[in-house]
Each structure stands twice: as structure tokens, then as C-alpha cells.
Amino acid sequence: MTTVRLTARHWRTGEPRELVGDAAELAAFTSAAPERLWLAPPLVDPQVNGFAGVDFQAEAPDGADLERAAAALARHGCAQFFLTLITDAWDRLLAKLARLRTLRAASPALRDALAGWHVEGPFLSAKPGFHGAHDPTLMLDPTPERLRELREAAGPDRLLITLAPERRGALAAITEAVRLGLTVSLGHTDAPAECLRDAVAAGATGFTHLGNACPQLLDRHDNILWRVLDTPGLTVSLIADGRHVSPPLFRLLHRALPPERILYTTDAMAAAGAPPGRYTLGRLALEVGPDRVVRLPGQTHFAGSALTPIEAVCTAAAMLGVSWRETWARMSVTPARWLGLSLPEPGATTPGCLVETDAAGRPVRWQLLRAGG
Ligand SMILES: [Zn+2]
Fold first, then answer.
1. How far is the CA of 358 from the centre of ligand 1 (A)?
2. Distance from Cα 211 to the centre of ligand 1, integer Å
3. Would you say 205 and 235 are in contact if contact means Cβ atoms under 8 Å apart?
4. Which CATH number, 3.40.50.150, 3.40.50.2300, 3.40.30.10, 3.20.20.140, labels domain 42-343?
5. What's the rounded Cα separation, in Å, for the pair 90 and 113?
């Protein structure tokens, strides 16, 4: 391997760091001005339903499909993600998870990239507006027994679950999930305030894509947004594409919540990192137009996004009117800490993401450095 030396600035401090890396990998950066090169931690996405034309909900994606999706995520700055399975018949969901685990075990690239599993459903609200793109007829109550079945299907892998705490038996199920080492996030829910607080007391630590999976029209006095903002102890994910959460609401959420309690996700589906067209999300046929919005044909509500991880960081920065260096943590160190992943500071011996910025300070080119410089 021919190596090349580059100087890049630390994403937080701006201090120069020397990088020694593969000349082929770094060729595009050798002519960049050193003050425009930055070294940041790799991005982490807790919710990816599909990517680059690959639908993770399909009955039988093969290993090559998954590797293609993981490689495309890496091209968008994301080194680790939680593959997300949405609501399906319970036995089918467990069988999919077991099959995906087998594919992951057989591929070193997937073992690196696929940091865990996010099971979103079927323990969700079936109420109109709250179930979103999930099939309400397949919703179930969570039970400790079902949580144990899920843990068995996932083996020792990291496991994140999104559930609605108002479902019958949910508090006992959350207690059991935490005992089994799961991270519990609340979502697709219309839980009363007291129920949200009880769920946090039982061990729930997150809230999934706040501002989505709720009806277009909400009671101005009492709705799930106000209740979540008034519930301490939750790390809240936001889909940072400027559409799932409007820019004014996005800014207000950043004023209302502690900065370390916000993380970004793409909630990407197969159309992300791929051209406009028709894609599937399990049994749903979805349309993605030139505006990059993912819709059920003929309907207004969204079903996943076509957002890529680095676009999420940059769109968040644009909405907040701050540098990408301020929003980057919410798609790297914050989700990593919340999910229990180790994500050391990027440096000479640890992986990182090399970012080149333009004269206005916006990222224009990036490259994941898997083995570090
Ligand atoms: Zn969702």
C-alpha cells in the first residue's frame, strides 16, 4: 500500500492532526487546503430500514445486498448502524431477525457495520396517525415472554426496541427488556404523561423520531409532543431532513431539550442513496419523487425517508444556522453513547471520517477512514 501524509483539523478543537493513510483512499484530498480538512468520528445511525435500493424488510435479502447497503452507508459517512425491522407478524419478524443474524455472522464487513438491531413494532399504537406506515392489524401487546423470544432470536447482539408504553403489560415488558440488556425507546405512541414517566422509571431511555408517527392535527393543550418535552430522562431522535420535522419545530426542539438529549436518524428506507422511483418497505409499495420525499402512493403521510446520514448532519446544521461541527455529535457520539457503542475520538489509530469543507465551511467531500490514519 502506498501511503500519503495529510494534516486535518480535529472536528471539535480545530487542532491539527497528522494522518497517514492509503494514497488511493485519500487521493481526492491531497490537493485540499489543510484548513479545510477535518477529522471527525464516524457517523452512527440507530434506525435504517433499507438503503441503496436494498429493502431490509424483504423476506430474503442476501448477504451481498446487505454488504452493498452497508458500503453505500459508509460512502455517506456512516460506519455503524442499527438495521431496523418494522412491524410484521411476530413469528415472521423473529424468523427475519434470525436469518439476518446468520448473514451478518458470515460477513466481516457486516459484523463491523451492523452494530445492532432495532425492532420497531409490533408493540405500537394502532390508533390512526400514530401507527404511521406500520400495519395496525399486526400490533400486539408486549409481554415479558415476547421480549425473551426477541432476545433469543437476537442472541447476544445489541438490541433496541421501540414500543408504545400505553399498550397492556408494557411496563412489565420494559422491565424485562432492560433486564435482558435491550435499549428501550418509546414511539408510535399516544401515551398519557404519567404513562411516559412510568416507562422512564421502568427503564425506557429514548423516544423514537419525535414529531412523526403522530396525526397531522393535534390537541393544542395536550399532545404527545408536549408530553415528551415535559418528560425528563429521554434521549429523543429526530429525522433531520427538513420535512419530517419542520425547520421551526426542529429549532424549537433544540431550545426545549438539553443538547445531549437529541440525536439524529435518517429512518432511511431503500430509496436513500438511490435515484427517485418506486421502492418497497416490506409489503408496502412506496413512491419517491424528485423532492426525495417517500410517500404511500396517493397519500400525504411519510413512510421512512430517502435521507443519507451526512445529509442529516448538514440539513440539521442548515436548519439551526450552525456549523456541521456542532451537529455532527448528534449523529455520532450521542447515539453511540445512548446505544452503548464505543466510539473513540478519531485519531492516528482509530477510525474517523475525513471531511473537506468549502469556502463557506460546508462539507463537500468526505471519506470514512476505517483503519484510521
Ligand atoms: Zn417509525
1. 34
2. 10
3. yes
4. 3.20.20.140
5. 26
pLDDT per residue as tens digits for the range 245-255: 999 999 999 99
> How sure is the predictor about 26, in pLDDT bands with cuts at 50, 70 and 90?
confident
- Domain locations along the chain: 1-40+346-373, 42-343
Measured in angstroms, how far is the CA atom of residue 239 from the centroid of ligand 1?
10
How much distance in Å is there from the Cα of 188 to the middle of ligand 1? 6
2 CA distance to ligand 1 middle (Å): 45
How many angstroms does the Cα of residue 310 sit away from the middle of ligand 1?
Answer: 20
pTM strictly above 0.85: yes
Distance 144 CA to ligand 1 centre (A): 22
